[in-house]
Amino acid sequence: MKNVTDSFLSLGRWPSAGSFGFNTDILSTNLINLSVVLGVLIFFGKGVCASCLLSDLLDNRKQRILNTIRNSEELRGGAIEQLEKARARLRKVEMEADQFRVNGYSEIEREKLNLIYKTLEQLENYKNETIQFEQQRTINQVRQRVFQQALQGALGTLNSCLNNELHFRTISANIGMLGSMKEITD
């Protein structure tokens, strides 16, 4: 308090226009500044209550801040709602993508199995055709050998059994048969 009273007392002892300097006493300079501001407000305000003016300014500022907060809350609520909708759409799209992926893999596996079955079926058919061909070829070879052996055996039997007289009688009988066939046709 002593500094405050000293600052007012020192106002009366200012030297007139001889020197200029800085007052380093913070408390006294703030007090001087405050008194100047209040003096200007009273002089130009002429009957306007300084505290009323300050109160109105603070109320207006408070209302602007509250409106800004209210608008921000509304925007935040809208943003949260849009975010939830976007998350729901994302979950739905992810589920559909998973379903498509599963269906795609299932379709690929199904096609792969079908291709394997068709290939196995074709191989089985080729195998059966090859077996049938080889069986037929083997049967034909066996028939030829049996026929050759039978023919050789028959020729051997005929050559050993036929003598000249039997040979002559067989030829005569055949010529007789041919002659009778000729008479029938004439």
TrEMBL record:
GO annotation terms (biological process): proton motive force-driven ATP synthesis
GO molecular-function terms, A-Z: proton transmembrane transporter activity
Residue stretches spanning the membrane: 31-54
Membrane topology note: Single-pass membrane protein
Residues in coiled coil: 76-103
Assigned GO CC terms: proton-transporting ATP synthase complex
The organism's place on the tree of life at top rank: Eukaryota
Keywords (A to Z) from UniProt: ATP synthesis, CF(0), Chloroplast, Coiled coil, Hydrogen ion transport, Ion transport, Membrane, Plastid, Transmembrane, Transmembrane helix, Transport
Classification via Pfam families: ATP-synt_B (PF00430)
Subcellular location: Membrane
CDD domains: ATP-synt_Fo_b
InterPro entries: ATP_synth_b/b'su_bac/chlpt
Biological role: F(1)F(0) ATP synthase produces ATP from ADP in the presence of a proton or sodium gradient. F-type ATPases consist of two structural domains, F(1) containing the extramembraneous catalytic core and F(0) containing the membrane proton channel, linked together by a central stalk and a peripheral stalk. During catalysis, ATP synthesis in the catalytic domain of F(1) is coupled via a rotary mechanism of the central stalk subunits to proton translocation.
Family from the record: Belongs to the ATPase B chain family.
Name this protein carries in UniProt: ATP synthase CF0 B subunit
Organism the protein comes from: Posoqueria latifolia
Phylogenetic lineage: Eukaryota, Viridiplantae, Streptophyta, Embryophyta, Tracheophyta
